[in-house]
Amino acid sequence: MTDESPIAGMPLRPAQYTERLLITGILDGTYPPGSDLPAERGLAEALGVTRPTVREALQRLAAEGWVTIRHGRATRVNNYWETGGLALLGTLVKYRDLVPGELILSLLDFRMMVLPPVARYAADHAPGQIRDFLQQRRELMPEASAFTAFDWQLQTLMARLSGNSIYPMLFNDFQTLFQTMGAFYFNHNRARKASMSYYDALYKALRKSGNAAERVVRQAMEESAAIWKQINPPTREATHETMERLGR
């Protein structure tokens, strides 16, 4: 196969290529949740691959919760919102142009629940390290890419310093989607201004206590979610077009 990976532009193996086509079909409604996939032979012919390749791809999708393989019966497409886990989420965010809008809003809600306590733990354990990193905020260039990188590094730094090894793994699954969202979000001056105010407030709060840092982060997450809802295009297609203009 000569298709390329949605992550790194690398050539895909036949099973990966098949997996990509099937996931794309699930996300764009070709194979909606609750429907049955064609038989292996039909899928192989339609996708131009061998039956063992289809079987391998289906087994990988089943392991993540996309489908349920039923021996002697057609493979059923799952409601992946209910059956998937972090592995499925990690795969889902690779398909940036097909990410449902409700997923982004759900992730913003998730971040509002998770990041504030993470910040409190990190501030209790190593406030000086976070303050040292925040010193770099004054050198931030006004480009969206610079803010995206800085904000992501701040989040992952706090996750690492929280003292809980699970938090960094959780955040790692969101990196691709965050980079996509950041390219759009930080392209707006209002978002950059709000984030700079957040960095300043967090820097000061770290002199006080972990609870103070948690309050600052929670307020910033609520503000960023409100800004996102105001500036986000009303359709997934519009979001994709914006990403294309930004060179994503």
CATH topology of the largest domain: Four Helix Bundle (Hemerythrin (Met), subunit A)
What fraction, in percent, of the residue positions are helical?
55-70%
What's the CATH C level of the largest domain? Mainly Alpha
Shape: elongated
How much of the sequence lies in strands comes to under 5%
Report on the architecture of this protein.
The chain folds into two domains: 14-92, Winged helix-like DNA-binding domain superfamily/Winged helix DNA-binding domain (Arc Repressor Mutant, subunit A, Orthogonal Bundle); 97-245, GntR ligand-binding domain-like (Four Helix Bundle (Hemerythrin (Met), subunit A)), CATH 1.20.120. Helix content is 67%, strand content 2%. The chain has 248 residues and is mainly α. It is elongated and about 65 Å long. It has 13 helices and two strands; from the N terminus they run H-H-H-E-E-H-H-H-H-H-H-H-H-H-H. A hairpin with a 7-residue loop joins strand 1 and strand 2 (76-77). 29% of the residues are buried. The protein has a two-stranded antiparallel sheet with strand order 1-2.
Short descriptors:
248 residues, mainly alpha, Arc Repressor Mutant, subunit A, Four Helix Bundle (Hemerythrin (Met), subunit A), 2 domains, two-stranded antiparallel sheet, 2 strands, disordered C terminus
Chain-wise SSE layout:
Blueprint: H1 14-27, H2 40-47, H3 51-64, E1 67-68, E2 76-77, H4 80-83, H5 86-92, H6 101-125, H7 127-134, H8 144-161, H9 166-172, H10 175-185, H11 189-205, H12 210-231, H13 236-245
Antiparallel strand pairs: 1-2
Helix pairs in contact: 1-3, 2-3, 6-8, 6-12, 8-9, 8-10, 11-12
